[in-house]
Amino acid sequence: MTPSPPLPIVLHDPSAGSVDVLVVAGEHSGDEHAAVLIQNLLREHPELKIAAVGGKHLQASGAQLLYDLTDLSVVGFYEVLRHYHYFKRLFYLVADWVEEHRPRVVLFVDYPGFNLRLARELFNRGVGERAGGETALLYYISPQVWAWKAKRRFEMARLLDGLAVIFPFEVDTFADTPMKVTFVGHPFLQSDQNCELIYHPEEKILLLGGSRLETVRRVLPIQLKTFRMLLADHPAREARLVYPSRAIRSEIQEIITSFPDLEGKLELVKNEGTIGGCAVMTTSGTMSLRCALAGIPGCVVHKIHPFSYILGKMLVHVPYIGIANLLLNRLLYPEFPQYAAKPKVLVEVLRQCLNDPSVIQKTQRERIELTRVLSDTNDHTPWTWLKGYLN
Which of 330, 292, 299 is nearest to 199 (CA)? Predict the structure, then answer.
């Protein structure tokens, strides 16, 4: 079992003055996206005091990091249950901190299993504006109510004072609620990203096992077996394994010890700077969208604990699991969830990505359409949206 990070959180120094914004982001992607928001906000208003329960990117953006919540990023019902007591203790520590320090805004970023419960707790304590308090409870990067638990939108409208969404179709999802919902564009298109992906036919194959330990353990071995099979007819090819954190890097290093025949063929790369790829096997999260926006042909491989998968099949009702596929409402990246993720099938997809010009051209065309869909924000950005609640 993955050990839980230590508690408690580091309390804000009262001598530093009152806090304007507390950001709560529990995943690596949310930490990165929120950091872009805070960096741009502080560029215009350096006098603002920002605290965060998030990760290193928020800290680098200028926020005081109270606790690194990204140290333990898990997904799935089973995986969350394993760390229940850790999350429960942290949950009440954060709620107590907000009640004591009363920031002007609490900004929840994605991570709905934790953040929506925290919003409800703060509302019940009378902290939120809708509950008669003076702290605005805002949400950036909406829970996927269009995919599952659709009735959450009514609870969100009861608790939250504002919502900023990053996909244009999400505005209509909340049309039957009184909540003010603003499309602010996707963070991938709003600043120089920490990691830029590019397509080149002579580059290495990208193997993206995800940003969560449990996902990497289940997905990466399948990707490595597929790459091993590809080498039979593409012996000169090499693979690039991209990781977001030291914990994920350590897990990858442990996994590849079981593939000694691939020594010299694998490169581990931090998700920073410019990273090239000729094809990709990726999980279904934000990196799959980043790959699509770069025009890299590939496929989505998704595998979680069987119990989580069965429950997910019962509760989640969407035509696709890849974000790019959802945005386009068509299959750009073939998807191989759970038991469909078999190396002998995936290797044929990789061969097409490398050898079939029509697959490469289609990916490049869809890249342009994706950029158009995500760019039409009517001049709203996350930081101008948030600034409106601080004036």
Answer: 292
